[in-house]
Design brief:
2,3-Dihydroxybiphenyl 1,2-Dioxygenase, domain 1; 2 domains; single chain; alpha+beta; 23% helix; 34% strand
Length: 375
């Protein structure tokens, strides 16, 4: 069974809302088949499952891809004027569902709704010859939905209604391991509301916060708070724009996405130099910081295991906290709209999110915004 979380058994004895890990995340896209080809070719995902016309669905089709503990579902409407199509019209390609792996989907739903969550769908049992899955769901910010997935009695390929997807085309993995965190962008003045929602409804705790003094440049600024579940496997930084001289990246996202949503997905690797090299060779484009960033890198972050030269060549950033250091890099937006992108991250003990890189990163984003004419 594949889950987007470390393989060790979590200790949830004192967890206010037990969640084992990320079960899957679903993106609504304009063309799931072509998007699946991109994720296979460029990002090393492997084909897993399919549902669509040949499985009895008449209004949509979904392709499921996997890489180590990451499961990604790509869904496209098959007819005009569907709810899915309307969301794509509004948001472009967007993360709609973040599914959370739980031991009891009924209890999770009851607890969440009793604590104030708005129901998306009530607990339902889905079954086929491989067993049954229980799922339920609640609404979060924007059009994001959290689905609670209980799958202990199921040994099928993904979920009932899906069949194995076994194309001949199978490019090699690039070493992505699991979802490290997912970053939300919400409207100005809404960050604390959703921080409180995750605390009250899902029992999350605040790990860290950043204000406009931490995350700002000459032109733009934002505020951010990081929420985490009890075992630390789910981390949701939540951003809102702060006043600046020009339009911030958060405001740009909110404009082109048509409201709040997931800005980027951070995926972990054990060898970022190797992974990013493969991504670059397969055509994935990354944000770049000035070469001068690396001139005093070791003075700023101390001794690291990696040579600076490949980090400079690839544009990989480094930051250190009290627990160790991390390496990270950010792709350019993966679609036509300047909205969703990916972060590739390798942690060498660090538990933070690269605060020391914020200025260089945001200036790189602003250079992209200037080229787009949206700064």
């Amino acid at each position: 069974m594949i889950q987007s979380a470390p393989s060790t058994t979590p200790d949830v004895s004192t967890d206010a809302f037990p969640i084992n890990g990320t079960d899957y995340f679903e993106m609504l896209v304009g063309n799931a088949r072509q998007s699946a080809h991109f994720y296979q070719t460029a990002m090393g995902f492997q084909p897993l499952a399919y549902a669509g016309l040949s499985t009895g669905l008449k209004d949509r089709e979904s392709y499921v891809l996997v890489q180590d503990k990451i499961r990604l579902v790509l869904t496209t409407p098959l007819k005009p004027n569907t709810d899915i199509g309307k969301l794509i019209d509004r948001h472009g390609d967007t993360v709609r569902t973040v599914a959370l792996w739980v031991d009891d989907a009924r209890a999770a739903f009851e607890t969440a709704t009793e604590r104030g969550a708005e129901a998306y769908f009530e607990p339902r049992e889905e079954k086929d010859e491989h067993g049954h899955v229980i799922r339920s769901a609640v609404k979060s910010y924007g059009h994001v939905v959290h689905v609670f997935v209980e799958r202990s009695a199921y040994d099928g390929v993904f979920l009932p209604g899906f069949v194995a997807w076994e194309p001949e085309y199978r490019p090699e993995s690039i070493g992505l391991k699991f979802v490290d965190h997912m970053v939300a962008n919400v409207d100005e003045g809404q960050m604390n509301k959703w921080v409180q929602w995750y605390a009250d409804v899902l029992g999350f705790k605040q790990l860290i916060s950043f204000d406009d003094k931490d995350i700002s440049t000459k032109y733009t600024a934002l505020m951010s708070k990081v929420m985490s579940n009890g075992n630390g496997r789910i981390k949701f930084p939540i951003n809102e724009p702060a006043p600046g001289l020009k339009k911030s990246q958060i405001e740009e996202y909110l404009e082109f996405h048509g409201g709040p949503g997931i800005q980027h997905i951070a995926v972990a690797t054990d060898n970022i130099v190797e992974t990013v090299t493969k991504l670059r060779d397969r055509g994935v484009e990354f944000l770049r910081v000035p070469a001068t960033y690396y001139d005093d890198l070791l003075d700023r972050v101390g001794k690291i295991d990696e040579s600076v030269d490949p980090l400079r060549e690839l544009g990989i950033l480094v930051d250190r906290d009290d627990e160790g250091y991390l390496l990270q890099i950010f792709t350019r937006p993966i679609g036509s709209r300047p909205t969703v992108f990916y972060e590739i991250i390798q942690r060498k003990g660090a538990t933070s999110f690269g605060k020391g890189n914020f200025k260089a990163l945001f200036e790189a984003i602003e250079r992209e915004q200037e080229l787009r004419g949206t700064l």
